[in-house]
């Protein structure tokens, strides 16, 4: 049966979403095209109707995941983001978590088009968090941007270090706790008054 253009677009989007999740779980080299297509519910041969190569899919899946992360943080200020991001739930939910934390190490060794997607995604996330956090009219834009970049880099590093430890390791939790408290304290100029109450905000993905 002939596939309509609309259905083909839906199938492609489903493949991209599936690939984004699998890449976050296993890395770019941890899943092959045949397995990826089977997971999405399609045959291996159908892959090349949508993509020229796995590298093309990697770039599109990265852009998809990075865009989703930025969109989920649009309503969060920087402190709410840190509470949600530097958490055990995010640490353990690799497949549904942030593409930056899951794949930055892999992306650094990939072709420039994938690293370009990461740069664009990091820029979008930085802009979204800066817009939410820069409520004070006298806050200098450059200072606000530096604060967001510092908090984001620290948050990503905390998740990556924690994931490098065994799941049951006390160090995995200690890294998250220490880094979360440090980031929140730095956001309040080091006075440590930032509330550490658990956030119900959506988890970045």
UniProtKB/TrEMBL annotation:
Keyword Transcription regulation included in the entry's annotation: yes
Gene3D superfamilies: Homeodomain-like (1.10.10.60), Tetracycline Repressor, domain 2 (1.10.357.10)
Pfam families (alphabetical): TetR_N
GO terms for MF: DNA binding
Location of the DNA-binding region in this protein: 32-51
Domain HTH tetR-type: 9-69
Keywords, alphabetical: DNA-binding, Transcription, Transcription regulation
Designated name of the protein: TetR family transcriptional regulator
Originating organism: Streptomyces spongiae
